[in-house]
Design a protein that fits this description.
The chain is 14% helix and 31% strand. By secondary structure, it is of the alpha+beta class. Strands 1, 2, 3, 4, 5, 6, 7 and 8 form an eight-stranded antiparallel β-sheet that branches. β3 and β4 form a beta hairpin. The longest helix is centred in the last third of the chain and has 8 residues. The radius of gyration is 16 Å and the shape is globular.
Length: 198
């Protein structure tokens, strides 16, 4: 499949503080895990890889704007799929303000198929702000993406995602991650022993 033809997926949802939502326990375990999602996924598979759908410089849309990344700010939008053993697990969309891509952080603009999360969590200065969650129904762009990837949808047709602002060397960036159908996050039989793993 030509993954680049899927870009941009975009991601507009009703994001809410995770503490205000009632979530199934196993899903909550994944959505609220403050540690590296890349590290956790790697612990559940033999082969992990990142497929870059695409990236482009855009103005931050009102639907994605937050206090530290206001509407209209120039951001580098990066969209990827995270695979475990050739099964797509997660769709991720990151907003990297151009004002944050200075100094050593300029390297974040050229990650290619490297995991952004892996790079972030290797930096001791990293701070993660509140995790927000959102539900995506059958009409959302990310569920349509799942269908293009020939992933069977969940019975209730809803996918769950999370997003948070990361502060790296005092520079903000935003990462949103949506668990695709058949992701470990929806499977109650997948162990949760890695929750405290860094």
């Amino acid at each position: 499949m030509n993954f680049q033809s899927l870009f941009p997926v975009t991601l507009s949802g009703l994001w809410r503080d995770a503490q205000c939502c009632s979530l199934p326990e196993n899903l909550q375990n994944w959505l609220l895990d403050p540690n590296s999602l890349t590290t956790r996924l790697k612990s559940h598979c033999q082969q992990f890889r990142v497929e870059l759908l695409g990236q482009s410089i855009e103005s931050c849309q009102e639907s994605e704007a937050v206090a530290l990344i206001p509407k209209g700010e120039q951001v580098l939008v990066r969209e990827v799929l995270l695979f475990c053993d050739d099964k797509p697990q997660v769709f991720a969309r990151s907003l990297l303000p151009l004002s944050s891509l200075t100094g050593a952080e300029h390297a974040l603009a050229n990650l290619g198929t490297q995991s952004l999360g892996q790079v972030l969590f290797n930096n001791p200065s990293l701070e993660r702000q509140t995790i927000e969650v959102a539900k995506f129904d059958a009409n959302s762009s990310v569920v349509k993406l799942a269908k293009k990837l020939h992933l069977s949808a969940l019975p209730q047709e809803n996918l769950w995602g999370r997003r948070s602002i990361f502060i790296l060397e005092n520079k903000p960036l935003m990462v949103a991650e949506v668990f695709l159908p058949a992701a470990f996050a929806y499977q109650s039989n997948v162990d949760s022993e890695c929750v405290n793993a860094k």
